[in-house]
Design brief:
about 500 residues, seven-stranded mixed sheet, 15 helices, binds nicotinamide-adenine-dinucleotide, binds N,N,N-trimethyl-4-oxobutan-1-aminium, Ald_DH/histidinol_DH, Aldehyde_DH_dom
Length: about 500
């Protein structure tokens, strides 16, 4: 992979990973095509794993779990630490794979790989410190608690951060002593395999991290399997509802990392230069295909003209093109239908009265090999109203809607008037206002004077329909473990019978 250039990669090896090796699935519930978004080429045709393959993957994970759960936290941490070292060592090769399969710029893909190995390193550190508590009771009796793993956990991923999602799920799961079966999105099947190989080489027992490829049907087999103890899902709200419904039938805990339509509030007393940079980071990473993007940009009336002018100027300068080139900052969208969907939102925004100040058009890079890629120019919409489709719905593309506001109370009401609650941001120099606003925003993550930074030490997850449960941070240990209470009698049993 290290020598790859755009337009050359083809997938030849099997894409499932079971028992410590790449395997072809024993049965299939259909096929899916995976593309290189930069060129529109098909790079792999997936056999979607059928029920028999899922059963084998669960069996293999269960066997590995029996070995892994008996290891000390320190021993588990050592494997995760070695895996982190290997991810760091192979950063460029993994980032190239991610760029080829997802379309994000190589510049960004490298940052994603950094947040991935950092996640492994962080949970490696936490693994040894997981402990219960000792509680003294009357007459010398006592109790203690044990934090125990859940068993075989399933991770189901979206296509926008394929490798990072696989790490954000597997690192805390394995640190807690679980095994994991990961199902990537069928659009981005590649990079999870690299993680699987790394875990094996780092010393994880074969089967501890299996990869099962496929779409909805495969996902259902996994969620419904009676030996699966937990499902952690990243994806859209409608699929999240289905996952929750299936898990409820088995009384299985779920983590749901779903979509968003997050507000970014820019007060007139902000540092304008930072606010403009913040708005770009909040909207255009990974071609705007980011769950927590601050796509409703509320700007206080006094500075809206100045802000908008500067945002347009900087958006015009974003270099679109071959995502493997070092100076590219925006690659193609994930696939043709998604590009059409995003362009459809822009069309309806115009019909509903918004003004396209810049972009929002299909884009054809000059390099002929990119002719069939899924490129568009990033789009700035103004004259937006809160009731417009582009302001209410998750577009999942590079489309920023700018809205004007007058007062803090008004903007808070409008910012919170959404069924989503993944993230929110505020730019102001007034420290009291910053914290007051952050406290009132109905979102799982609130950024003050920045946006879309996600250090592994801080929990990440949603309010409202954006989901529940958290990834990253110490708290995620609680989502991948269960608490056992042990009562110890030091006297005689007193019986009323
Ligand atoms: N909150 C977060 O951390 C986060 C991160 C990334 C993406 N997302 C969200 O993900 C969405 C985009 O991703 P997507 O298009 O891949 O989402 P999606 O819901 O279409 O698919 C997500 C995953 O679910 C699988 N799936 C689909 N139907 C299923 C079913 N019935 N049972 C089991 N699995 C099923 C898919 O194959 C895929 O692996 C956006 O809404 C985005 O906001 C959220
Ligand atoms: C790393 N980011 C930019 C915060 C994205 C997290 C995952 C969301 O899609």
């Amino acid at each position: 992979v290290a020598a790859m250039s755009t337009g050359t990669f083809v997938q030849l090896e099997p894409l499932n990973y079971r028992g410590g090796a790449r395997v072809e699935p024993v049965d299939s519930s259909g096929t899916e095509k995976a593309f290189e978004p930069a060129t529109g080429r098909v790079i792999a045709t997936l056999q979607c794993s059928g029920e028999n393959e899922v059963n084998l993957a669960v069996k293999s994970a269960k066997d590995a779990f029996e070995i892994w759960r008996k290891k000390s936290g320190m021993e588990r941490g050592q494997v995760l630490l070695e895996a982190a070292r290997m991810v760091k060592e192979q950063k460029d090769a993994i980032a190239i794979m991610e760029t080829i399969n997802n379309g994000k710029s190589i510049f960004e893909a490298r940052l994603d790989i950094d947040t991935s190995w950092q996640c492994l390193e962080y949970y490696a550190g936490l693994a040894a410190s997981m402990a219960g508590e000792h509680v003294q009771l009357p007459n010398g009796s006592f109790g203690y608690t044990r934090r125990e793993p859940l068993g075989v956990c399933v991770g189901i991923g979206a296509w926008n951060y394929p490798f990072q999602i696989a790490c954000w799920k597997s690192a805390p799961a394995l640190a807690c002593g679980n095994a994991m079966i990961f199902k990537p999105s069928p659009f981005t099947p590649m990079s999870a395999l690299l993680l699987a190989e790394i875990y094996t080489k780092a010393g994880a027992p074969p089967g501890l991290f299996n990869v099962v490829q496929g779409g909805a049907a495969t996902g259902q087999f996994l969620c419904q399997h009676r030996h699966v103890a937990k499902v952690s899902f990243t994806g859209s709200v409608p699929t999240g509802m289905k996952i929750m419904e299936m898990s409820s039938k088995g009384i299985k805990p779920v983590t749901l990392e779903l979509g968003g339509k997050s507000p970014l509030i820019i007060f007139s007393d902000c540092d304008l230069e930072n606010a403009v940079k913040g708005a770009l980071v909040a909207n255009f990473l990974t071609q705007g295909q980011v769950c927590c993007n601050g796509t409703r940009v509320f700007v206080q009336k006094e500075i809206i003209d100045k802000f908008t002018k500067e945002v347009v100027k900087q958006t015009q300068n974003i270099r679109i093109g071959d995502p493997l080139l070092e100076d590219t900052r925006m690659g193609p969208l994930i696939n043709g239908p998604h590009l059409e969907r995003v362009l459809g939102f822009i069309k309806s925004a115009k019909e509903e009265g918004a003004t396209v100040l810049y972009g929002g058009e299909p884009y054809e890079p000059t390099d002929p090999k990119l002719k069939h890629g899924y490129y568009m120019t990033p789009c700035i919409l103004t004259n937006c109203r809160d009731d417009m489709t582009c302001v209410r719905e998750e577009i999942f593309g590079p489309v920023m809607s700018i809205l004007s506001f007058k007062t803090e109370a008004e903007v808070l009401d409008r910012a919170n008037d959404t069924t989503f609650g993944l993230a929110a941001g505020v730019f102001t120099r007034d420290i009291q206002r910053a914290h007051r606003v952050a406290a009132e925003l109905q979102a799982g993550t609130c950024y003050i004077n920045n946006y879309n930074v996600s250090p592994v030490e801080l929990p990440f997850g949603g309010y409202k329909k954006s989901g529940f449960g958290r990834e990253n941070g110490r708290v995620t240990i609680e989502y991948y473990s269960q608490l056992k209470t042990v009562y110890v009698e030091m006297g005689d049993v007193e019986s009323p019978f």
